[in-house]
Every structure is written in structure tokens, then in C-alpha cells.
Amino acid sequence: MPDLGPLWLTLHLALVTTAILLVLGTPISWWLATTTSRLKPAVEAVTALPLVLPPTVLGFYLLVILSPTSFLGGLWVDVTGDALTFSFSGLVVASIFYSLPFMVQPLQSAFETVGRGPMEAAASLRASPLDAFLNVAVPLSARGFLTAAVLTFAHTIGEFGVVLMVGGNIPGRTRVISIAIYEHVETLRYAEAHVLSAGLVAFSFCVLLLIYTFNRRFPVHVG
Q1: Distance separating alpha carbons of residues 191 and 79, to the nearest angstrom
Q2: Are 141 and 111 in contact (CB under 8 A)?
Q3: 197 with 205: CB under 8 angstroms?
Q4: What CA–CA distance (Å, rounded) separates 121 from 125?
Q5: Which pLDDT score, from 0 to 100, does residue 4 have?
Q6: Is residue 222 part of a domain?
Q7: What pLDDT is stored for residue 208 in this prediction?
Q8: φ, ψ for residue 73 (rounded to 5)?
Q9: CA nearest 86: which of 99, 70, 73, 100?
Q10: 223 belongs to a structural domain
Q11: d(CA 87, CA 208)
Q12: Tally of CA atoms within 13 A in the half-sphere of 19 that contains its CB
């Protein structure tokens, strides 16, 4: 029977990362969908960088930024007594950066689909911008929120290069499922690697099936 420790650690990492990115990614996506600022292309490029950068490049710079000798890493050590590198907290920070576009882009697209009409109608009824966002934009963007959350969760589960660079391979601490598969293959334990890999394939298929089925059954209707 394969060791389930990396599986539970990976699920924990994916849940925490998805929850944090829902909080951070929603205002970023809303701003990108509604702004006319000249900075919009630059912000879009920054949020999309993880899509084109090799994971090892992103992982290397995160390793430098999060190391105890850096300002951020040193501050974290002073506050918590633990280093960000080679820790679960470091994996969370790395995953937030690596999975950011999978949260932002679907939400931005959903908010753009809503358009200005419903928001202007809410404003004409004296709803505050926050009320209009929570009671109009968010419900109309429910499909985008589901897509963003599921894609972020699934993408975090499949991380390898970034988590290896930042977290290494520490059992019970940073050994996620992708690292465990790599270790099994490296030590010629193909049967265990096959079980974990087949599980990821099935999970990825179910995720995509869920998204496509939901999108077909619940199309967006914006008035």
C-alpha cells in the first residue's frame, strides 16, 4: 500500500492555496476587468508570468526571496522562529505565485462577461459599489468562481518544479505527491509511482469533466 502522507499534504496545500487565492485573486480580477488604467497590460503580464516561465526559474527566485538571509525570509524567521524555505508555509507562498493566473484569468473573464449594465442598474437603485459587487457581480460570476477554484486546486496538486526548489523533499513536511512520484521512479519503485500517477490522471480528468459539464448545463445569462 502506498504512503498516503504525500497525498494528504498535497490536498492540504491545494485547499489552503485555493482559499488564499480566492481572497487575493478576486479584487485583482475585478480591477483588471473594470479598469481603464494604462497599467492594466503590465499587471496582466505579471499575473500571467507563471504560465510561460519554467517552474525552476520561478522556484529559484522564490527560493532566493524566501531564504532566511533575505528581508522577507528573515522577517518571517524573526516573527515565527521558522524559515519559509523547506517548510509547508514556503510551499503555500510558492503555490500562490505559481497558481495565480489559474485564479485570476477565469475570474477576470467572468467579470468582463457581466459587463457594466447590471452594475449601473444596481447603482441606480442606490446600491453601494460593495453591495453591487457582492449581490450582483458575484452571483452572476458564479461559474467563473467555480472554474477558477477548481483549476487552481488541480494545478496546485500537480506542481513539481516550484515545490521541489522551494520545499525540497522532506517527509511529512514538504513531500507532496508529485515529489513522491519522482522519488518512486528514481528508486525504480514503478508500481507505487503508477498508483499515484494513475490517481492524478483520474483526478485531472474528473476536474475537467466537472468544469465542462457545469459550463454546459449552467450558461451565463446577463441582463
Answers
A1: 43
A2: yes
A3: no
A4: 7
A5: 73
A6: no
A7: 83
A8: -65, -40
A9: 73
A10: no
A11: 30
A12: 7
Give domain status of residue 35, yes or no: yes
Query: CA-CA distance, 99 to 158, in Å (whole number)?
Result: 10
Each of the 223 residues of the chain gets a pLDDT tens digit; together they read 556 788 889 999 999 999 999 999 999 999 999 998 999 999 999 999 999 999 989 999 999 999 999 999 999 999 998 899 999 999 999 999 999 999 999 999 999 998 888 888 888 888 888 888 988 899 999 889 989 999 999 899 988 889 999 998 888 889 999 999 998 898 888 888 888 888 888 888 888 888 888 777 766 555 4
Structural domain span for residue 45: 5-217
Per the document, the length of the chain is 223
Task: Answer yes or no: is 180 within a domain.
Answer: yes
Other beta carbons within 10 Å of 155: 22
d(CA 16, CA 20): 6
- CATH number of the domain within which 175 lies: 1.10.3720.10
Rounded to whole angstroms, the Cα distance separating 5 from 176 reads: 8
Three cell numbers written together for 175: 513531500
Q: Which residues contact 178 (CB under 8 A, 6 or more apart)?
A: 10, 157, 158, 159, 160, 163, 200
pLDDT of residue 1: 53
Could you give the number of structural domains in the chain? 1
Whole-number Å distance between alpha carbons of 220 and 113: 8
